[in-house]
Specification:
The chain contains 8 helices and 10 strands. With 237 residues, the chain is an alpha/beta fold. Strands 1, 2, 3, 4, 5, 6, 7, 8, 9 and 10 form a 10-stranded mixed β-sheet that branches. The model has no long low-confidence stretch (mean pLDDT 95).
């Protein structure tokens, strides 16, 4: 059986690897061998599970909710994935906004006119980014120079000056974010406002904070307000 995860430098890939290692300790006893596949993320994993291409996958809780309910603002609008099943939750994930200090971005509202990676199509963080921007009245198609690249590639782009900021829905600490905050270009975690509006609209979001102590390279001195979801392990009925 195969577990769909995410980018190799993200958290989902090693998480899937750890689960596979546990399963494979009993492979002779149960006749099951577990492998891990790096994928585009939550949306890809749900669709691959439902089509039978994957047996299990790591999926953000918000994407799981949208898929099961066929939410109108999702890829599954009007097509509820009723056979999707949650096995267990894994870890909390915070929607993290990482920005270059020289771009003068301290808050999500400062993103207007900037080059921002909102995440690749099919990833959970792309929708999280759009939700966060919409809550404060920012249209990512009109108000930003938006990029659609995997979040795990954002650190290099930020340090090379090719983007000014990026969103990443991820558990902390994270290797890519450590990379982003450890380069020559100074970096900060920008705060995300409009959280209360998001919580009122979407039941799968919750308040969260970025623990800056695990990123000594960032210029922030205090934990940063944001919102988050949970990583879940899913399969089909």
């Amino acid at each position: 059986m195969t577990i769909g995860t995410g980018g190799i430098t993200g958290v989902y890939y090693p998480t899937g690897g750890a689960i596979a290692k546990i399963v494979n300790k009993k492979k002779k006893e149960y006749g099951i061998r577990c492998t891990v596949e790096s994928t585009g993320g939550s949306v890809f994993n749900v669709n691959a599970i439902m089509s039978g291409d994957l047996e299990f996958g790591v999926v953000q809780s918000d994407r799981q909710f949208q898929a099961i309910n066929g939410s109108p603002d999702s890829e599954w609008a009007g097509k509820p994935q009723k056979d999707l099943r949650a096995v267990f939750s894994i870890h909390p994930e915070s929607i993290t906004l990482v920005a270059a200090v020289d771009a003068d971005i301290k808050d999500i509202m400062d993103l207007k006119g900037k080059r921002v990676n909102i995440g690749n199509p099919g990833s959970g963080q792309r929708q999280n980014s759009i939700d966060a921007l919409t809550a404060v009245g920012i249209d990512y198609k009109k108000d930003l120079n938006a990029e659609g690249i995997k979040a795990s590639e954002s650190a290099g782009l930020l340090q090379d000056g090719r983007i000014d900021a990026f969103f990443y829905t991820v558990g902390h600490p994270n290797g890519s974010i450590k990379e982003a905050t450890s380069g020559k270009r100074k970096v900060r975690f920008a705060s995300i406002t409009g959280v209360d509006k998001l919580l009122a609209k979407y039941p799968y979001y919750a308040k969260a904070f970025i623990p800056v102590k695990v990123y000594p390279g960032a210029v922030n001195e205090k934990d940063v307000q944001t919102f988050g979801v949970k990583a879940t392990f899913v399969t089909s009925a």
